[in-house]
Amino acid sequence: MKTALNKIILSAATSVLIATTAFAGSPTKITVKGSDTLVVQAQKWAEIYMNQKSEVKIQVTGGGTGTGFAALQNQTTDLCNASRKIRAAEIAECIKAFGKRPTEYKVCLDGLSVYVAAENPLKELSMEQLLLIFTGKIKNWKELGGNDAPITVYSRENSSGTYEFFKENVLQGKDFAASAQTMPGTAAVLQAVAKDKNGIGYGGAAYGAGAKHLAIKKTDNSPAIDPTEENVVKGIYPIWRYLFVYVNPALDKGEIASYLTWIRGDEGQKVVKEVGYFPLPKHLRE
């Protein structure tokens, strides 16, 4: 009887040990997909968080905001990075897929910047001039007081949230010029502009290396405003926006919830500033 009992106790203890070992050896994996504007920021967040919590593994990929929302709907990503707000049709697809509207988190602020090559003599443009340039109505820099040279327009692909935000808020819904050269990410836009003395493009505030940003005037008679943190936080800069993370509410618990809280907390927002975006005001971090 004692031998049988010992076997049962040993078996139970072994089962507990196996279960504990399996649990301890199985890291929590969080997948993040979406906005190319946010990809460098998201990778930095993930790197620092994983250094603090070795049991958590975070995989970050870009592909564009639209790609991220599709992955959220298909339940092939835990978190969707977005450089624009979710659309009604995308909400409907999420409700169809997992029964609820995704939870939206503002994670930082961005002054969407307009870039030209460093040697371009222009320092500022108005919102009206941007509309005319990017829709192809103004084709030569001399029309803006610049050199006598054709303007080369660089843009993002149409799956990009930045593309859609710029089209809606700067082009007033009008189409980009047919001659616009589509680039596969913000970094590619900036690299192209930096190498092209006649180029112009747009992108997040963190992507400025090699080119220069232009100050932007809301109207022709308004002062030209730089995309600084103060001007963006106050809403003075004309092309500012929030950047977002969306999540299926059913997944917003445990380590995913802890990670989202960390991103929006003091430590995560410190990283925002280091990367080149702008931290959320305190009242938006709850």
CATH fold group of the largest domain: D-Maltodextrin-Binding Protein, domain 2
Radius of gyration: 24 Å
Top-tier CATH class of the largest domain: Alpha Beta
What distance separates the N and C termini?
60 Å
Average pLDDT metric: 90
The profile of the biggest β sheet is: 5 strands, mixed
**Total number of strands:** 13
Poorly predicted parts: 1-25
The helix/strand series, from N terminus to C terminus, equals: HEHEHEHEEEHEHEHEEEEHEHH
Number of helices: 10
Shape: globular
Oligomer: single chain
Class inferred from helices and paired strands: alpha/beta
Query: Order of strands side by side in the largest beta sheet?
Result: 2-1-3-13-4
- CATH homologous group name of the largest domain: Periplasmic binding protein-like II
Which percent range describes the beta-strand content? 15-25%
Number of domains: 2
Helix content: 25-40%
CATH architectural group of the largest domain: 3-Layer(aba) Sandwich
Could you explain how this protein is built, in words?
β11 and β12 form a beta hairpin. It is globular, with a radius of gyration of 24 Å. α2 (39-52) packs across α10. It has 286 residues and is of the alpha/beta class. Residues 1-25 have low confidence and may be disordered. Helix content is 38%, strand content 23%. The chain has 2 domains: 2-110 and 242-284, D-Maltodextrin-Binding Protein, domain 2 (3-Layer(aba) Sandwich), CATH 3.40.190.10; 113-226, 3-Layer(aba) Sandwich (D-Maltodextrin-Binding Protein, domain 2). The chain has helices at residues 2-24, 39-52, 65-73, 88-98, 127-134, 161-169, 186-195, 229-233, 254-264, 266-275; strands at residues 28-34, 56-63, 79-82, 103-111, 113-117, 124-126, 152-156, 181-183, 199-203, 211-213, 215-217, 224-225, 240-247. The strands form 3 sheets. Strands 2-1-3-13-4 form a 5-stranded mixed β-sheet. The protein has a 5-stranded mixed β-sheet with strand order 8-7-9-5-10. The chain is built from 10 helices and 13 strands.
